[in-house]
Amino acid sequence: MAPGVRALEPLDVQSTVEQVRVLGAHEQATRLDWNESPFGPLPGVLDALGDELANVSRYPIEAYDDFRADAARSLGVSSDCVVPGHGTQALICTVATTLLQPGDAVVQPAVTFYLYRMVSAARGAVVYETPMGARGIDLGALLAKAREVDAKLLWICDPNNPTGTALERREWEAFLDALPERCVVVADEAYMDFLPPDRQLRRERDVVDGKPLVVLRSFSKFFGLAGLRLGCAIADEALAGYLRVVDEPFNVNCVALAAGRASLRVGDEVRAIRLREVADARQYLTEALVAVGAEPYPSEVSFVLVRVDADDVLLTRQLLDAGILVRSGSELGLPGHIRVTVCPPSVTDRLAVELGRALYR
Prior knowledge:
The chain is an alpha/beta fold.
């Protein structure tokens, strides 16, 4: 057993299962804790999904390559650069297995997605965390630590989970140019599609330009396919080949691949409608949270981090009793906070009432 595994605390999935069961007893049960899309898949995707059911008796060999081709066309890269996976979480594990050896140094922000630390430590790497900046991830701090410890791998979630903040292209380019030798960056872009097109960094172009970079994209969030578990990695052809060797062959099911391809075919106008829908709902949620005395941080994605100046574990339990499940900040390393998924206004109104009651109880 890798030494780092013994020190890890697993994600409390069973607790989440129990919470969902409690939630099931409520007539208006609302899940706002895992950033699932309350708006569902994009138009036409469910039809494509249904059509693919006739092929479930076959291994998804053709579907796998068809998805790679469609994703490559959408991203402007070679299909040899695209590695599908059953969710970005699986791809995070694949990248760590491919690149890390026991004793390697890994650097990540102090407040970010929990899985980076877990998979790195599980493979025997030594994980170093850097403090956050005023706007979220501090790229300067990451670079300084990477040089200090001769980092092999550097994890970045952008837009960052759970802070909801995103980097600017200018600072990203300066960061890439200053990377120490033999350090690979993994940029998890699970929430990138929630940014307007002019704010999206298009890191796949950095991959094409030969930067030491792996980009991860998800279909769980913006595209509303969390239950199908679909994502892809973009890396240079040589590294992508190694990622495919480590991963089991054709590891994504044909239905998920069909839904992913249909999502990629949706036009810019439809995507723009979804962007406005989420942005409007996020603004409505922010204003409602302020009105009940909470302090939401600025967000550009499908969730909002909220300072509540209260026992967030107790507060989360009180909201659960009211039929609303949000994420406790203590689970994210941010006591005194909660994280709330953006939701339709009718759900926000109910959340605001129950949150106000819990805060002033």
